[in-house]
Amino acid sequence: MIESVTVLTNPAAGPRTARATRAATTRLRERGLHVTEIAGDTPQHSLELVRRTVAAGTGALVAVGGDGLVWLAWQALAQSGIPLGIVPAGTGNDLARVLQLPSDPVAAADVVADGSTRTIDLGRVRAAGRPDHWFGTVLASGFDSLVTDRANRMRRPRGRLRYNVAMVAELAHLRLLPYRITLDDGDLEVAATMVAVGNASTYGGGMRIAPAARLDDGLLDVVIVTSANRTRLLRLFPTVYRGTHVELDEVTVRRTRRVRLECPGISAYADGEPLGPLPVDVEAVPGAGVVLVPGAQPPNV
């Protein structure tokens, strides 16, 4: 039974997160839990606070925010055994969506207070000269990461529209990229538009890029897209929300425990966060994360 929780927030996230934090912390206290709130001035400061919390011990860490804050939490929680609760208050909320967590902050706080946990796999990313990073949903590279690179360089417009504008601009430079992909059962040299590695099925606010990926099977789904035709790529994107893109000839899915991605000039993003340039080595680590979930959580999602 959980008696105390530490609530992590991003003070720069805006009024929606502030309202969700007030509602969730009030509900947690109503349910009899001791609540400690932490919020760093910068992402690095927040990570330091979370690591101190993990070292000191807490019944659970509750992230009130979006996928970026959840990603930050995993950097300290992975393999610690301390459960993560999520109060969705971001734009994408993809891990919360896969776990079928309620979007209402009071209902999400009730999930935490009820104390039902589930053990899940996490992806671990290693690259020479950089620290290990952990992710819960999807690692993206190729066209997807080029769009995100461009969007991050833009000041306007704000919100999701900036990503859409960046995508249109990047389409003008669409090209096949020379990937080398090392899987458990061998190497592939392939000209691809993008390669995504799914620990979970969904990223980007509901795009089911790896629809068959499961959080507890010890495997990664590697999705390879090989079309450089602008029209076909634009037609492919709506099908990603349904997960039916994997039926197309230009999409291949491989399942593996470990994968190495190499491609010059391409960066990787995991849970929407930048990890730096390829090459990277990605591994599914079974049971590395513990999450608080609804009591009727179905298996294999």
Describe this protein's structure.
Belongs to the diacylglycerol/lipid kinase family. This is Diacylglycerol kinase. GO terms for molecular function: ATP binding; ATP-dependent diacylglycerol kinase activity; metal ion binding. It comes from Rhodococcus ruber. Pfam families: DAGK_cat (PF00781), YegS_C (PF19279). The protein is an alpha+beta fold and 301 residues long. The chain folds into 2 domains: 4-114, Rossmann fold (3-Layer(aba) Sandwich); 130-286, Sandwich (Tumour Suppressor Smad4), CATH 2.60.200. It has 8 helices and 16 strands. It has helices at 15-30, 43-56, 67-77, 94-98, 105-114, 143-153, 160-171, 230-240; strands spanning 4-9, 34-38, 61-65, 84-88, 117-127, 130-135, 138-142, 177-183, 186-192, 194-198, 220-225, 251-256, 258-262, 267-270, 273-277, 280-292. The chain has a 6-stranded antiparallel beta sheet with strand order 6-5-16-13-8-9, covered by helices on one side. A 6-stranded antiparallel beta sheet has the order 12-11-10-7-14-15. Strand 5 and strand 6 form a beta hairpin. Helix 1 runs parallel beside helix 5 (105-114), helix 2 packs across helix 3 and helix 6 (143-153) packs across helix 7. It is globular. The mean pLDDT is 93.
What attributes characterize this protein structure?
Rossmann fold, Tumour Suppressor Smad4, 2 domains, six-stranded antiparallel β-sheet, alpha+beta, single chain, 301 residues
